[in-house]
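Whiteboard transcription, Tuesday session. T.W. wrote the C-alpha cells on the left side:
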C-alpha cells in the first residue's frame, strides 16, 4: 500500500511539473500575480474623466487599499475555491493568527471556544486525549460528525475518526476557517455539523521566531521556527513545539458503601476502622465515597512541522508539508485519602470488610452506626499510561491551465503509526497488565477542476479517493507500565474501508444582488477484510472473517444569497450529509473489567442527515456587524450503544436513533474605537432524540454531550504597546446517558454547566518582542467535566520574532 501511495504522489508531482513545463514559456515574461475570483466585486472606476491628477492619485490609492483588504479576506473551505466570505451563502467564521495571539491559546481547539455554534470539549487541559469540537449540537464523539482538516486534508484516523487537537501547533496557524452546516456535498462523510479547516503559514520573507511560557502545575511550552522566501519562488519553513505539564489529580477514586448494615460477631472482630473518605453522590444520585485519586495526570508532547512551497511559474504552485506528533501521558503516584484513625496508617484495600466503626471510635460519621466499603483494591487507584505518534504528509499543487481553468491536485497520508495505552495493573510499581495497540493509516487523493464561465459563473468538478486501514490488538504484558513486555494476544480486530467520490458544484451570480450555489456529491463507500478474534473468552473465539459491506450515498445541496443593500445580506441553504461507520464501530469488540462487553456491529449502516438554514447579516454602521441564523436538521440511523435484550452485560452498536437538532445563532461585533473591539454571541440548540426503539426512555431526551445554551463575549483593547483581551463563556449542562438520568451536578462523572472568564495582557516593548501575562479561569470556578477541571491557571510568556 505504501508503494502504491508513493506512486500516486510521484504521479501528482510529475503531472504538475509537466503542466508547468508546457505552460511556463507563455508566462515567462509576465509578472507573477495571484488571481483570486471574488464574485460580485467589480472594479470601481472614476465617475468622470475630468478629475485632477490629485483626485486620480487618491482614487488609485483607495482602490489599491480595497484590493488588499479583499485579498486578505478570503476563505477556501466553503466552496473549495477562494472567495470573499461576504459573498458565500454559508455561516462562516474565520480565526486569524492575530486572533490567536490576542488570547492565551495553547491548543488549536481552544481557539474555537468563542465561535458561534461551536462547543470545545476539553475537560482537563492538555491531558484530555478525548478533546473534540462539535458544531451545531451534533454529537461529536471522537470528532466523527464534524470534519477537521489540515490544509484541506482530512486529519481523522481511520480507526475511530478521532483527531488529536494537540497535534496542531498554534504558532504555525495562519487562520482557521469554520463553516457550519452540512457539507457532504463538497467534503463527503463526517461533514454533518460542518467543516473546520486549519490553514498553516507559508513564509513570505525571512521569518524567525522563538518563544516560551510557564504556568501552574509546573507547565511550560517552548517553540522555535525558521522560514524564508527565496528567489520569490521558493518558501521553506521548519518549526518545533514542545509542551509539558506535571498535571494535577484529575481522576478520583470512588467506591460504593452499604449503610446501616448489621454485622455478625465474626465480621465485627475483623473490621478495620476507616476515616478520610468523602461521602457524596454519583451523577445518577446513588451514594458513593471519594476515597483517593490516581495521581498527577502528566503529559508531554512535541510537534515538528515542515513546509515547502514552490511557485515555478505564474499561476502554478506546488507545496509539500509534514506534521509529526509525539505524545506521552501518564499518572503519578496515586493517593489514598483513607487511613486508620487508631494508628494513622493509610488504607488502599478494603474488599467487602473495610468498615467504619461506631461513631464513638472515629468521630462524626456520614453513614450512621455501621457501614462498609465494597470493591476497593490497589488496582482501583491505577489509571492507564499511553503514547501516540502520528505523522501527516500533504502534497498539493495548483495549476492555472488557462485564464479560466484551474487544476488542483492533492494527496495525503495520515499515519497513526503508534497508538497504545496500558492498564490492568494491581500495584503501581510492577504487576502484569494489558496493553492496547491500535495503529491506523488513512490515504487521501483529490483532483479538482475550477472552470470560470463568462463573468458570472464558476463550475467546480472533482474526483476523490480515500482508503484506510486500522487494527486493534490487546496483549498481556509482564509489567503494566512496560508496553514492550508483551506475552500473549488477548483480542484482535482489524479492517479496511475506502470511499470513491465524484462531486460537481455550480456557482452563478445572476445579478449583483443575487447568486446561487447548487452542487452534489456521489460517494461509493465499502468496508472489507474485517476480522475478529477473542482468545480470552470461554470458549475461545478464533478468527472470524466478517462480511464485506458497500453503500452509496448522494449528498445534494443548494444555497442562495440575496443582498438588497450593501449593508444587508440574506442567505439560505439546504442539503444532506452522511457519515459511514468507522472500523472501531464495525469490528472492535472488547470487555471491561466490570464484565461488560462492548460489542461491534459489522452490519451498521451510515448515518444520514437533512438540514436547512436561513440567516441574515447587517452592517448598519461602520465597524458594526450583526448576524442571526436559524438552523434545523434531522439525523436518521444514528449509531448508538444500546443494551442487548438478551444479555444485560452486553452493549451493542445499533442504527437505533432518529434525532432532530434545531436552534439559533446570534452574533454581534463592534469596533467602538480604533483601539477597542467588543463582541458577543449566543447559541441556543434543542437536540432531541425522536425515535429509538432499543431505548424507549431516550425518546424526547437531549442528545448526549450537546449543550443547549452557550453565551460568549469578548473585549480587546490595543493601545500604545499594550494589548489586553478579556473573554467569557457560559456552557449549559450536558448528559452522557441517552435517558438523561445523569442529572446530578458537582460530582465525579458529571458534566456541569460552567462560566469561564479568561484574560491576557501583552506588552510589546520593541517591534520584535512580546511579553504577556495570562489567567485562564480568572474567577477560579470549580466544576466537573467527568474529571475535575484544573481551576485557575496563570501564565507568563515571552516571544521573539523577526
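and on the right, the sequence the group agreed on:
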Amino acid at each position: 500500500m505504501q508503494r502504491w501511495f508513493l506512486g500516486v504522489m510521484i504521479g501528482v508531482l510529475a503531472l504538475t511539473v509537466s503542466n508547468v513545463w508546457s505552460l511556463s514559456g507563455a508566462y515567462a515574461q509576465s509578472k507573477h500575480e495571484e488571481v483570486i475570483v471574488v464574485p460580485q466585486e467589480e472594479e470601481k472606476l472614476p465617475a468622470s474623466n475630468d478629475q485632477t491628477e490629485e483626485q486620480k492619485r487618491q482614487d488609485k490609492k483607495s482602490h489599491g487599499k480595497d484590493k488588499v483588504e479583499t485579498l486578505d479576506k478570503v476563505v477556501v473551505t466553503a466552496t473549495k475555491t477562494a472567495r470573499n466570505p461576504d459573498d458565500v451563502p454559508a455561516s462562516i467564521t474565520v480565526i486569524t493568527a492575530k486572533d490567536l495571539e490576542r488570547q492565551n491559546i495553547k491548543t488549536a481547539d481552544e481557539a474555537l471556544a468563542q465561535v458561534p455554534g461551536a462547543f470545545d470539549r476539553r475537560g482537563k487541559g492538555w491531558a484530555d486525549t478525548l478533546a473534540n469540537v462539535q458544531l451545531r449540537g451534533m454529537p461529536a464523539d471522537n470528532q466523527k460528525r464534524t470534519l477537521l482538516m489540515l490544509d484541506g486534508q482530512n486529519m481523522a484516523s481511520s480507526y475511530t475518526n478521532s483527531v488529536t487537537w494537540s497535534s496542531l501547533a498554534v504558532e504555525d496557524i495562519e487562520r482557521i476557517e469554520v463553516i457550519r452546516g452540512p457539507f457532504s456535498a463538497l467534503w463527503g462523510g463526517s461533514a454533518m455539523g460542518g467543516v473546520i479547516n486549519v490553514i498553516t503559514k507559508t513564509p513570505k520573507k525571512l521569518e524567525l521566531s522563538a518563544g516560551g511560557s510557564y504556568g501552574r502545575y509546573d507547565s511550560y511550552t517552548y517553540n522555535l521556527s525558521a522560514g524564508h522566501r527565496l528567489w520569490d519562488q521558493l518558501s521553506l519553513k521548519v518549526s518545533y513545539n514542545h509542551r509539558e505539564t506535571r498535571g494535577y489529580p484529575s481522576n478520583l477514586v470512588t467506591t460504593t458503601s452499604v449503610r446501616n448494615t448489621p454485622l455478625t460477631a465474626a465480621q465485627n472482630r475483623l473490621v478495620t476502622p476507616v476515616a478520610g473518605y468523602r461521602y457524596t453522590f454519583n451523577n445518577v444520585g446513588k451514594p458513593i465515597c471519594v476515597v483517593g485519586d490516581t495521581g498527577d495526570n502528566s503529559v508531554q508532547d512535541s510537534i515538528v512541522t515542515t513546509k515547502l512551497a514552490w511557485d515555478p511559474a505564474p499561476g502554478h504552485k506546488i507545496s509539500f508539508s509534514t506534521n509529526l506528533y509525539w505524545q506521552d501521558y501518564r499518572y503519578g503516584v496515586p493517593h489514598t485519602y483513607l487511613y486508620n484513625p487508631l494508628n494513622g496508617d493509610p488504607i488502599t484495600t478494603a474488599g467487602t470488610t473495610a468498615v467504619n466503626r461506631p461513631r464513638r471510635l472515629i468521630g462524626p460519621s456520614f453513614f450512621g452506626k455501621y457501614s462498609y466499603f465494597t470493591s476497593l483494591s490497589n488496582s482501583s487507584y491505577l489509571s492507564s499510561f499511553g503514547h501516540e505518534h502520528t505523522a501527516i504528509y500533504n502534497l498539493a499543487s495548483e495549476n492555472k491551465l488557462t485564464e479560466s481553468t484551474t487544476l488542483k491536485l492533492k494527496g495525503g497520508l495520515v499515519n497513526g503509526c503508534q497508538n497504545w495505552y496500558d492498564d490492568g495493573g494491581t500495584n503501581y510499581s510492577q504487576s502484569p497488565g494489558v496493553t492496547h495497540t491500535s495503529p491506523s493509516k488513512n490515504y487521501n487523493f483529490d483532483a479538482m477542476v475550477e472552470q470560470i464561465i463568462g463573468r458570472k459563473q464558476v463550475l467546480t468538478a472533482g474526483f476523490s479517493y480515500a482508503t484506510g486501514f486500522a487494527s486493534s490488538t490487546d496483549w498481556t504484558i509482564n509489567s503494566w507500565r512496560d508496553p514492550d513486555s508483551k506475552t500473549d494476544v488477548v483480542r484482535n480486530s482489524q479492517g479496511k474501508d475506502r470511499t470513491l467520490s465524484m462531486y460537481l458544484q455550480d456557482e452563478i451570480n445572476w445579478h449583483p444582488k443575487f447568486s446561487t450555489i447548487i452542487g452534489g456529491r456521489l460517494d461509493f463507500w465499502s468496508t472489507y477484510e474485517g476480522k475478529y478474534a477473542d482468545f480470552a473468552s470461554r470458549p475461545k473465539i478464533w478468527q472470524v472473517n466478517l462480511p464485506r459491506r458497500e453503500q452509496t450515498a448522494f449528498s445534494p445541496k443548494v444555497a442562495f444569497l440575496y443582498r438588497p443593500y450593501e449593508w444587508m445580506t440574506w442567505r439560505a441553504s439546504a442539503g444532506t450529509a452522511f457519515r459511514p461507520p468507522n472500523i472501531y464501530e464495525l469490528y472492535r469488540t472488547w470487555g471491561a473489567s466490570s464484565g461488560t462487553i462492548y460489542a461491534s456491529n459489522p452490519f451498521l449502516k451510515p448515518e444520514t442527515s437533512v438540514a436547512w438554514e436561513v440567516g441574515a447579516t447587517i452592517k448598519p454602521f461602520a465597524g458594526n456587524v450583526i448576524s442571526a441564523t436559524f438552523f434545523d436538521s434531522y439525523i436518521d440511523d444514528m449509531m448508538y450503544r444500546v443494551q442487548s435484550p438478551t444479555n444485560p452485560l452486553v452493549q451493542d452498536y445499533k442504527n437505533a436513533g432518529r434525532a432532530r437538532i434545531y436552534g439559533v445563532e446570534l452574533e454581534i461585533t463592534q469596533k467602538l474605537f480604533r483601539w477597542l473591539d467588543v463582541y458577543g454571541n449566543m447559541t441556543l440548540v434543542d437536540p432531541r432524540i425522536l425515535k429509538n426503539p432499543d431505548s424507549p426512555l431516550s425518546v424526547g431526551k437531549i442528545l448526549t454531550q450537546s449543550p443547549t445554551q452557550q453565551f460568549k463575549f469578548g473585549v480587546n483593547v490595543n493601545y500604545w504597546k499594550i494589548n489586553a483581551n478579556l473573554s467569557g463563556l457560559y456552557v449549559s449542562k450536558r448528559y452522557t446517558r441517552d435517558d438523561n438520568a445523569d442529572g446530578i451536578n458537582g460530582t465525579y462523572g458529571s458534566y456541569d454547566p460552567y462560566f469561564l472568564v479568561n484574560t491576557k495582557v501583552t506588552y510589546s516593548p520593541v517591534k520584535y518582542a512580546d511579553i504577556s501575562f495570562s489567567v485562564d479561569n480568572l474567577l477560579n470556578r470549580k466544576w466537573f467535566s467527568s474529571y475535575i477541571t484544573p481551576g485557575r491557571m496563570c501564565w507568563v510568556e515571552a516571544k521573539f520574532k523577526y
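Someone added at the bottom: The helical segments are 2-27, 53-72, 97-102, 184-187, 265-270, 359-362, 583-587.
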